[in-house]
Please model this.
Amino acid sequence: MKLIKLSVLSVFFNCVITISHAQTINITQLEANVLKLNDELKYTESVKIIDTFIKENKNNNYNLYGAYIQKSFTYKRLFDYKSAMRCLDLALKIGIKTNKKNVVIAEINAEKSFILFDLQEYEKSGILMNELRKHNYEYLDNNRKAYLIMQDGYLSYLKKEYKDAIYKLDLAQLILEKYNNRDLPIVYGKKILLFGAMNDSSNAKKSFKLGLFNAKKYNLIKYQMYLYEVYRNQFAMRKDYKNAFFAFEKYDSLNTVYNIEENKGKIKIFEKDLNLKQKEFEIKRNRLWMIFMGVIIILLIFLAVISYKFYRTKRAKHYLLEKEYDRIHDELVLLSQSSNSKNHFSKYNLKDRQIEVINLLREGKSNKQIATELFISENTVKYHLKAIYDILKIDNRMQLFKILDNH
Model:
């Protein structure tokens, strides 16, 4: 019973560790996984884990850069250079946003030069290579440096500068032997061509055997195919059709295993299906977002209507209160002014009509308005004003206002 419990617990903890590991995969682990899957010709699975990694690292530019580089390697394995270039462009766009801008630019230029070289666009590849060589391959790892030196050696071979070609290919071989044995077959393939051009069949055969041994050691079918193709062409050039045919048969059988077109088709179908699912998800998300925004807008309109009605009611009440306040205030002012005027001007023996005129002046009314208020003519108002000025011994209305202000 205890053994069963321990076994169940062990399985449980292993699952937890596995899930945790899957959720915390970093770019180094992704590179290792992609390399393993590509070596096993599992390209669909390779693209799948890269796309999953990209989705999980949308806010990490450094990880995204590395993921698109890995995706370009996968397409390059399938000789789908157009897709590989597209991935490199995406990697560059993202990579320059990181704090390793110079490294990113150097690595992308190196990778693009490799693709252009494979496409035999040597002039375009050479432009990028010269730029990197001018800066002594700064910011590049030893593997990329070895590749660039190897390509430089091949270009020397094409120019028939064989001594220089041997020096550069040997240098590239030494770097790869120290840092990356996996890619040595590429150098040996270039040496087969070089020794073939120099009519050195012994060294050409030796390079083929060493390259093939290394390619089989790491089970790299792509490199085996490359070596057999180069060796076949060498036999054909020497009109050794028997060995050329043998090399072609080996190449053809490896090509069947490699199954390039089928794998390319699988990836295209997988990515198409992935894109369709992504679009369906985005459509659903947009639809939910529209519904959510519609509800929000309706709520905002409802709140706006309620707020407006509340504002109108409050404003109406405020207006009525102000009117009532003004009415009471006016009545108090009239009573106060009437009383005060009589008290203030009692010593001057002013008549009631004259006091009425003074009170109306105090309210700020004009002669015409006073005449209308008292049902008299404007001239009569002027007459009363003149009489008031004489009694108060003043000359104008301003002096009258001063007296009113003092009282």
